[in-house]
Design a protein that fits this description.
The protein is of the alpha/beta class and 296 residues long. It is built from eleven helices and twelve strands. The N and C termini lie far apart (51 Å). Residues 10-16, 33-36, 73-76, 78, 81-82, 85, 99-101, 123, 126-127, 129, 247, 259 line the site of NADP nicotinamide-adenine-dinucleotide phosphate (NAP). Keywords: NADP, Oxidoreductase, Pantothenate biosynthesis.
Amino acid sequence: MSDRPNIALIGPGAIGTTIAAALHEVNRTPLLCGRTAHAHLILHHDEGKIVVPGPVLSNPSAVTHPMDLVFIAVKTTQVTDSAEWLAALCNENTVVCALQNGVEQKTLLAPYVRGATVLPSVVWFPAQREPDASVRLRAKPRLTLPDVPQAQRVADALSGTRCGVELADDFLSIAWRKLLQNAVAGLMVLANRRAGMFARRDITQLALAYLHECLTVARAQGAVLHDNVPQEIIAGFQRAPADLGTSILADRQANRPMEWDIRNGVIQRYGHSQGIPTPISDILVPLLAAGSDGPG
Ligand SMILES: NC(=O)c1ccc[n+]([C@@H]2O[C@H](COP(=O)([O-])OP(=O)(O)OC[C@H]3O[C@@H](n4cnc5c(N)ncnc54)[C@H](OP(=O)(O)O)[C@@H]3O)[C@@H](O)[C@H]2O)c1
């Protein structure tokens, strides 16, 4: 690998545009690989905007050689459709950094990456796509990755950029803590309401019961999370602006497929496989799945 690694980004949406812009600002512009062709990407942030020159490629046959580092920021429901990009951009020397929610990125991506190393990450910043495909960044970009040797390639690529990178010894616990937060946000889909709904006592009780179910499953997977985590997560929603949404709610309201399986189905699947009762998941998950995928 040369001093200037070849970097590609698959999925230049809300998260992908943010990372592409952070890299572009320090002259490490990645190859942009998307579904929809665009002449450039635009990121709006608190102090202004960054224009990332394109084009956004939309045909994987345009790729001439594998990359050192590939960021993938498609929704997890879009991974299968991204298979041709991964095949063109990866070989066994590539590091693939998944900028996706959930705790299953490695399993999900491994079949498509031709022996590359897959690194999960926790994405800590909210970003939102505008109707004109530009992206609005809502907080300082920050990622956490597992502290493994290959993660240094990601840390080096993002060093000196506006996106911070932390390498964590106990990545598993951090990823599960974030998953619990995402899982309980799924209740917003069924209520069709934003964070303000957590001010209700009945919702707080339901959310806490669900989070205790999630916590039991997380601990059975090896996550070290203390007893107060459910309460802390609910308190976080209660402190948030009442109109704070979540991407799974945005997807439902736009009638797009939802990431219900990696955010909520995972609790039920892991629970069932370990004999842990998941009575709340058993109601929540089919409703989210049907809301996402139909029929009807
Ligand atoms: N947004 C957030 O605030 C946030 C925060 C934390 C974590 N996350 C997680 O980050 C991941 C990405 O979310 P996002 O909000 O950035 O999604 P998004 O805005 O919908 O972006 C997805 C991008 O992938 C592209 N894409 C779809 N199918 C593709 C294909 N077959 N090949 C290449 N590109 C394809 C889309 O193209 P089109 O332009 O054609 O739609 C779009 O540019 C998700 O797992 C999400 O849960 C998001």
